[in-house]
Amino acid sequence: MPAKKGAAPVQEDHADKKKEVEETKESKSNKENHHPIASTKSDTAKPKRPASAYNLFVSSKRAEVKAQNPDLGPKDMIKHIAGLWKNASEAEKQKFKTLHEQEKAKLEAAQKAAEDPKPAKRKDASQDEEEKDTKKRKAEIGKKKTVK
């Protein structure tokens, strides 16, 4: 089939598309924030949530199950541990629920401490003396005004 008049060769079209793709890649890489939900310093400073009772159970049983069944993959290991949790007595579950509550209390205390403003700096002894002298002078001036 003969080529149309004024039509660009196919190879040139591909080269133009490649240039466009490269330019868009460069412009995207030059942007400050690639992702709309970028993590900030304040996000990383926040303490993590406390582990749930189930997660605490899993972390305590993982090594034991791995030792008994070294051929289990991660997915099968979690299935096995989930079965152990399901069949665990209420007393055993309560032990992990108590641990969860303790972690939760620690986290809340840490959050409160982070929210409270820092205590004022302790003053030097010389600053304390200066303040006392100033208060005395003001009191004396006040007495002189009331006496007149």
Automatic annotation (TrEMBL):
<dbReference type="GO" id="GO:0005634">
    <property type="term" value="C:nucleus"/>
</dbReference>
<feature type="region of interest" description="Disordered">
    <location>
        <begin position="1"/>
        <end position="75"/>
    </location>
</feature>
<keyword id="KW-0539">Nucleus</keyword>
<dbReference type="InterPro" id="IPR036910">
    <property type="entry name" value="HMG_box_dom_sf"/>
</dbReference>
<feature type="compositionally biased region" description="Basic and acidic residues">
    <location>
        <begin position="93"/>
        <end position="126"/>
    </location>
</feature>
<keyword id="KW-0238">DNA-binding</keyword>
<feature type="DNA-binding region" description="HMG box">
    <location>
        <begin position="47"/>
        <end position="115"/>
    </location>
</feature>
<feature type="domain" description="HMG box">
    <location>
        <begin position="47"/>
        <end position="115"/>
    </location>
</feature>
<feature type="compositionally biased region" description="Basic and acidic residues">
    <location>
        <begin position="139"/>
        <end position="148"/>
    </location>
</feature>
<feature type="compositionally biased region" description="Basic and acidic residues">
    <location>
        <begin position="11"/>
        <end position="35"/>
    </location>
</feature>
<dbReference type="Pfam" id="PF00505">
    <property type="entry name" value="HMG_box"/>
</dbReference>
<protein>
    <recommendedName>
        <fullName>HMG box domain-containing protein</fullName>
    </recommendedName>
</protein>
<dbReference type="GO" id="GO:0003677">
    <property type="term" value="F:DNA binding"/>
</dbReference>
<feature type="region of interest" description="Disordered">
    <location>
        <begin position="93"/>
        <end position="148"/>
    </location>
</feature>
<dbReference type="InterPro" id="IPR050342">
    <property type="entry name" value="HMGB"/>
</dbReference>
<dbReference type="InterPro" id="IPR009071">
    <property type="entry name" value="HMG_box_dom"/>
</dbReference>
